[in-house]
Amino acid sequence: MLTRQRSALSGARYHIGARKLTSCTVMLGCPPSRTSIQSLPMTPRFVARQLSCPTGFFGRIMGQLMNRHNAKLNAFAVRQLALMPSDRVLEIGFGGGVTLPALIAGAGFVAGVDRSQEMVKQAKAKFSKVVSAGRADFREGNVEDLPFEALSFGKVCTVNTVYFWPSLDAGFAEIYRVLSPGGRLVVGFLPKERMERMGVPTDIFTLRTPEDVTAAILRVSFTDVRIERPDPTTPWNVVVATL
User: Fold this and answer.
1) pLDDT tens digits for the chain (243 residues)?
2) Do 142 and 178 lie in a common domain?
3) Are 139 and 36 contained in the same domain?
4) Can you tell me whether residue 226 is helix, strand or coil?
5) Cβ distance 113 to 146 under 8 Å?
6) Are residues 171 and 196 located together in one domain of the fold?
7) Helix 117-126 crosses helix 56-69 at what angle (to 10 degrees)?
8) Which of 120, 168, 170, 184 could be disulfide-bonded to 216 (CB atoms 3.0-4.6 Å)?
9) Domain boundary at 44, 68, 92, which?
10) Domain that includes residue 153, residue range
11) Do residues 115 and 219 share a domain?
């Protein structure tokens, strides 16, 4: 484990920070990985901020970790979209882009918005051919002010982002604005009861209960709101709602 590594930053403070780094990665569904995080001199708050908005060299590493360890949650969320070749899909907070290949393969057009300039740049480079063909568009932005016209999409998904939204009501109102009638929304997240055990910095993460999320979705006129999980013991929730 990272806490057993010695480096120029070794010592009690580094040991404690590394232990909390493991908590931050587990919090988003990421089990500890010796090969992926060992020897990275990152403090707990630094990790939390990188999860919120990946930047620079460590942001790219964080994107890779999120891709690897959140794969099951993301794959399940994509399945709930029930993609069709004619679909126009928006992903909010695509991060390292683990869902983008499946979205591009299953839909006619895929847009993505992320608050991280680094992640947007990475997506544009990786999927440049699809972008050039007019089948994808990646932009920097925030959920409370989506850079797209009203009624632009038939389906919207977002995974592990609601902890960083200033307001659930504002975020879901914007999603409502860009969705067309009959549209579908899929939201994946780890609930408050799970996250509370991990000691995440609450000035960076806002912990959300399933009731918080579903109530906010219902307030902006979504219907048929339900929570899906592949198994009753699954720690995370995926909320599915339609207009």
Assistant:
1) 333 333 332 232 222 233 333 434 333 544 434 333 334 445 565 555 555 555 555 555 555 566 566 788 999 999 999 999 999 999 999 988 999 999 999 999 999 999 988 889 999 999 999 999 999 999 999 999 999 999 999 999 999 999 999 999 999 999 999 999 999 999 999 999 988 887 777 878 899 999 999 999 999 999 899 999 999 999 999 999 999
2) yes
3) no
4) strand
5) yes
6) yes
7) 70
8) 168
9) 68
10) 71-242
11) yes
39, 68, 97 - which closes a domain: 68
By C-alpha distance, which of 140, 209, 204, 218 is closest to 173? 218
User: Within 13 Å and on the Cβ side, how many CA atoms surround 82?
Assistant: 7
Q: How far apart are CA 212 and CA 194, in angstroms?
A: 15
Phi-psi bin for 121: left (phi > 0), alpha (psi -120 to 50), beta? alpha
Are 91 and 27 within one domain? no
64 and 17: one domain?
Answer: yes
Domain count, the chain: 2
Question: Is 111 in a helix, a strand, or coil?
Answer: strand
